[in-house]
Design a protein that fits this description.
The strands form two sheets. Strands 1, 2, 3, 4, 5, 6 and 7 form a seven-stranded mixed sheet that branches. The protein has a two-stranded antiparallel sheet with strand order 8-9. The chain has seven helices and nine strands; from the N terminus they run E-H-E-H-H-E-E-H-E-H-E-E-E-E-H-H. The chain is α/β, with parallel strands linked by helices and about 200 residues long.
Length: about 200
Amino acid sequence: MNVLLLGGSPSSPSSSWRLLQLVGARLAALGHHIVALQVRDLPALALLRGDIDDPAIAVAAAMVAEADALVIGTPVYKAAYSGLLKTFLDLLPQDGLAGKIVLPLATGGSQSHMLALDYALRPVLASLSPRHILPSIYATSDQLPWHPERGLHPAAPIAERIDAGVEQLEHALHALQTLQVLPRKPAVIDSRSAPAALAA
């Protein structure tokens, strides 16, 4: 299944992007096809103008359309997800996430920003008609220690939430794949109750 890692951080490096990469690596190990998009790499002027005819914006929109699931990562500033991510989500059509599974991730300076995912980001994602939004994962920077050689090593409580999130997404993707391969039964018309024009 196709999974898009959508990074909404304006900074590089960033804790939210490292968290996204960790989840992406776990999903890739389970056999899913992973592609990544950092919104900050898109042309700023086209993004701000909402220019969907810009080639880079069109490619980004196509990446969303082709994904079966999105793992969306954002930093939280002043109890709100990043304006960069909002600008990109505003480009998507009203049903831009239709049929897709979404796993939201966020990082912030303290636990006081944790509810930003539920009260700010989730309603926006829900308005784009996804099939399912999984429980969010929030971590502070202190819970995501980074080592240049060993990489990201989340604190135990966050590691457990990551394990649960990956498992939930894997189950949801398996269910979605099953639905996609199930044969559709042909419609059967009962001639006894059909209109005369059909029964003739």
